[in-house]
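#data-curation
PF: Archiving a pair of folding outputs for the training set. Convention for this channel: one message per protein, sequence first, structure tokens after, nothing in between. First:
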Amino acid sequence: MTTDNETSAHTEDTGSADQTNTQAVKTYTQKEVDDMMAKTKTAVMKKVSSKYEDLGDPDELRTIVQQYQKTQQEQQLKRGEFDKILQDIAAKKDAEIAKRDRIIESYKVETPIIEAASRYRAVNSEQVKSLVRNHVRLNADGDVEVLDEKGSVRYDDNGRPISVDNFVQTWLQQNPHFVQPTPSTTGTRTSIGVSQDSKVDLSKLDMRNPEHRKLYAETRKSQ
């Protein structure tokens, strides 16, 4: 036989069990989940941003950083343009220096070659200049030097550098076909325009000239 106290205790145990089961199977709606996530995110953001509260609003800070980066880019572009201007100025300066050096070189090297070639009766002074130009240069001190085939400075028998005038004269003597024919002298002339009583300089005859070849043969025969 069951007493009232036993019945009441049984009822209370049953109620506690039902309440536990109800709590174990409790579910949350999507809104409740979103609210909990929002609260968690707010709490985390507040905790993190609390260290930088003195710096101001994060959006304002982001704007300041972007503006600074933009300013840096503009300054880099300006520096690039300035560097280009400097390069252009340097290029113009180099061109002016090269032009000046070219004028000096023409005055101190090429002009003396042409004048010497004309003085020693070259057929074509410009042609002689083009043929001997590589053997004449300006040194670092701006002095004219005559070079040999190996590119070394040439000296005369006295140990002095050979002058352009002497160099051109010697070159024409070694290449007589670049020299104009010797003009005829006064006196009794032969059919080829050379006096019979004048001494013929065979080294100055132009062997491309048929009359000079004939004179050369006659002179050699008479000798």
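PF: Second:
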Amino acid sequence: MIRRHDRQHETARDRARVAAELLEEARQLTETAMLSAAPPDPAIGPPRNGNGHSNGNGHGNGHSNGNGHGNGNGHGPGYRTIDSLPPIRSQAERQLSALDDAVTAQPDSVPLLLERATHLGGMGRYAAARADLERALLLDPASVTVRSALGIVLLRKGLWANAIPHLRLVVEAESWSPTAWFYLGEALNHVDDLDGALAAFGRAAELDPHHAKALYGQGVVLDRLRRPDDAARLYRRSREVAGR
């Protein structure tokens, strides 16, 4: 009984881990890299810690509150405080603006639509990314790259059934890709096609015996098929491969 309880606890913990890692792997498949926020505008400068006087240029008599923002009652026009300045645009937002301009100039460019969709995905704006990818797919229905990206975006939105037709076409075109098989397995598992999911995860593991998530996925499906011993074996193998 204790062993069964421990195994259930271990399984729940592993499921939470893999669920988190699934999102990260999806990011790696369809996105380049998350763009970090730009550093503060040097024109604003760092906050001040001195005991300066009020911001007014007139006859203010109040003292600063310690962060450089005077609270005096000066009658002059005063300087703009940091809080009154427009928000700083991040590097990601600036790049998106440039992509918007490029797509406006070339609305039928599949590479530009794909690039913007990838960027939008990196910003977590999946609905907008989906719109770009669906537009790109209309322009180039044979593009496996676009279809793969669309399938992943649909997965990340939890639209498992919508993703399956795209992912099936991807594995037909790229049957050598363990990643494509893995994501097809994820989608099939979520719509309760357990036999299909087990086959897809198994194919991914055949193509890449060190694909820890594919091994774990088999364990999840075997658990759902009430085959706990087989599931436990796959969970152990997944941890061994992952080095955990």
